[in-house]
Specification:
Elements (H helix, E strand, L loop, with lengths): L5 E2 L6 H4 L3 E2 L14 E3 L6 E2 L2 E2 L11 E3 L12 E7 L8 E6 L4 E5 L9 E2 L13 E3 L8 E3 L1 E2 L6 E3 L7 E7 L2 E5 L5 E5 L3 E4 L15 H6 L55 E3 L12
Antiparallel strand pairs: 1-2, 3-6, 4-5, 7-8, 7-10, 8-9, 11-18, 12-15, 12-18, 13-14, 15-16, 16-17, 17-19
């Protein structure tokens, strides 16, 4: 699958002048596989009727593609049947078919195309895009994605468009990875990963151009707390352009904001060798 550039239209309106779109030339199949599709109910960022995630709601209707994150059919070759668009993620999906006829979706690597044959194994396989194997069987310096945090749990890290992690070392029970954010951390060497870079690396270059396109993606408007009423936000109230009236800014729920660490202490913290640099945009292509 070749890298597809972003397309710009002729400027016929103010919003079109600054907007750009994906070309979708890498898509080979328009409609999803019916047996691998389920429908989801729109929750609009609510849990039990209460807003738990702000600024969500509306948007175009989407169906869920059931992606195989584990790929536990070991040593069975699979042929790439199609490259498809997924409205629920920024990367592409590859529809693969095993030799017995079973089909499944996987996250498509960048340099994969129709009729390519890939395999998932617990042993060793060729180091080519799309093949999946434990980190201990991958050579040092190879780029990987869709990495497991626990063996057999399925890929959880490095799944965004254009992202990749580099295998730095394998020593003892752990393998060391440099993640797209710049963080360096250890993962059990028995965890599986897919060779290659995630597809659609130009996604972060898209300029949405107007508010309507963002609403189609399911995002509602974001309003500053300073312009709200006191009952809606700690920054609200006052006459005219007053300050927030607080020593430090706060979240809508009243907790300290801006610069305050929000990550809870976890057992896996001891596996982090180097934190990501401050101010680095997370998820950029490497």
């Amino acid at each position: 699958m070749k890298r597809m550039p972003i397309k710009k239209y002729k400027s016929i309106s103010n919003s079109r002048r600054i907007s750009s779109v994906q070309t979708f030339k890498d898509i080979t199949k328009k409609n999803p596989e019916k047996s691998l599709v389920s429908f989801r109910k729109q929750k609009s960022g609510r849990s039990g009727g209460k807003i738990t995630v702000r600024h969500r709601g509306g948007g175009a209707r989407r169906s869920i593609r059931m992606v195989d994150n584990r790929r536990e059919r070991f040593d069975v070759p699979a042929k790439v049947v199609a490259i498809e668009y997924d409205p629920n993620r920024n990367s592409r999906l590859a529809l693969v078919q095993y030799t017995d006829g079973e089909k499944c979706y996987i996250i498509a690597p960048q340099n994969i195309g129709v009729n390519n044959v890939i395999v998932s194994t617990k042993g060793r396989a060729d180091i080519k895009d799309g093949n999946r194997m434990p980190l201990e069987n991958i050579p040092i310096g190879v780029n990987v994605h869709d990495v497991e945090l626990q063996p057999g749990k399925g890929g959880q890290m490095v799944r965004g468009a254009g992202t990749t992690a580099q295998l730095v070392a394998v020593e003892g029970e752990y393998a060391t990875l440099k993640l797209p954010s710049g963080e360096v951390r250890m993962v059990l060497k028995g965890c599986s990963a897919t060779v290659g870079v995630v597809s659609n690396p130009d996604y972060n270059l898209i300029r949405w151009g107007k508010a309507g396109r963002t609403r189609h993606r399911g995002f509602r408007p974001t309003v500053r707390g300073k312009v709200m009423n006191p009952c809606d936000h700690p920054h609200g109230g006052g006459e005219g352009r007053n300050s927030i009236g607080l020593k430090n800014p706060k979240t809508p729920s009243g907790k300290p904001a801006l610069g305050v660490k929000t990550r809870r202490k976890q057992a896996s913290d001891k596996l982090i060798i180097k934190r990501r640099p401050k101010g680095r945009f997370v998820g950029t292509s490497v």
